[in-house]
Each structure stands twice: as structure tokens, then as C-alpha cells.
Design a protein that fits this description.
This protein is mostly helical and 111 residues long. It folds into 2 domains: 64 residues; 45 residues. The chain contains 4 helices and no strands. It is extended and about 55 Å long.
């Protein structure tokens, strides 16, 4: 195997995201009994759109370039917790919203 890196074309990724999403909606609207195909196309389009947002630009690094190992592990633990116990979200969503509103009002004022 060669040690060559393959650059990802950000523009092509964005175009493919839009095309997959439009194709999925078209199949969903026009074709009968093709819900699985439409769902796969729409999910692929959304995933490519998320990848497009995370890719680096000329002025900005990649979204994952400055993620600390602690934040990565915390996100992984939170995801596993939510998958294992989805009912915990019933309690955490209102608490998160309340903390978000409080942080908007209680943050330090600019000098």
C-alpha cells in the first residue's frame, strides 16, 4: 500500500449531498413501495451534508482538528448512555434548555 493521502473535494461532497437528498425526495414522491430506497438516499444525502460542513475550507480547519481527547471521550460516553437508556433524554432535554436560557442571561457582560 502507498502512503498517499487522497484529498476530499469539498465542492463535490456538497453537490452529491444535494443530489442524493433530491433523488430521495423524488423517489419518495413518485415511486410506490420504494420507501427503503428513498430513505437510504435521503440519509446518505444528510450524512454527506454533515461531512461537507465538517470538512476544512481555505480559511478554517477541519471541525475535528481541535477536539480534545477528553471532549471526544465525553461525547462517546454520552452517546452510549443515550443509546442504552433513551428515557434519560426526557429529563436531560428540559434541564439542558433551562441551562441554555440561564447561561444566556447570566454570562459576564462585555467591558
Amino acid at each position: 500500500m502507498s502512503n498517499r493521502t487522497v484529498p476530499i473535494n469539498r465542492t463535490l461532497t456538497g453537490v452529491l449531498a444535494v443530489l442524493f437528498t433530491i433523488a430521495g425526495v423524488f423517489v419518495l414522491v413518485r415511486a410506490e413501495n420504494q420507501d427503503a430506497v428513498a430513505g437510504a438516499l435521503i440519509r446518505t444525502g444528510i450524512l454527506l451534508g454533515a461531512l461537507w460542513l465538517a470538512l476544512p475550507t481555505r480559511k478554517r480547519e477541519a471541525a475535528w482538528a481541535n477536539v480534545s481527547p477528553v471532549a471526544f471521550v465525553a461525547t462517546l460516553v454520552a452517546a452510549v448512555t443515550f443509546v442504552a437508556r433513551p428515557r434519560i433524554l426526557v429529563y436531560l432535554i428540559p434541564i439542558g434548555l433551562a441551562l441554555g436560557v440561564l447561561s444566556a442571561f447570566l454570562r459576564p457582560r462585555p467591558k
